[in-house]
Design brief:
This protein is of the alpha+beta class. Helix content is 22%, strand content 23%.
């Protein structure tokens, strides 16, 4: 399944996942499962939190949140080199962006065939 999802994401596209983390009934994501399945993508976010999910659940639950970008392959056939850049956001801006991202997390899913 992970391979089909990987192939479906367009180069430069995002894979965005929010789901239960380590649920007792096995219908969620193990701690490193998403990182293992999609490790060849550039992982932008991989976290486990206690929070209200974007779908209706009236209480905080353990969640897995994961965002990865499919690396665009250069004409040479190899992925571009990733470089470290300085974060231009202040702590307040980062907090606002994180809050907004959490609200719209599942709506960003851009899996394309």
């Amino acid at each position: 399944m992970a391979e089909r999802i990987y192939r479906a994401v367009k180069p430069g596209g995002l894979l965005v996942v929010e789901g239960f983390a380590n649920p007792p009934n096995g219908t969620g994501f193990e701690a490193d499962g998403l990182r293992t399945w999609f490790g060849r993508m550039r992982i932008l976010r991989d976290e486990r939190v206690e929070d209200y999910p974007d779908w209706y659940v009236p209480e905080k639950v353990p969640l897995a949140r994961f965002v990865a970008e499919k690396i665009q392959v250069a004409a040479s056939g190899s992925p571009p080199r990733l470089t470290q850049v300085e974060d231009p956001l202040s702590d307040d801006q980062r907090s606002d962006a994180r809050s907004m991202t959490n609200r719209y997390f599942t709506s960003l899913l851009s899996i394309r065939s």
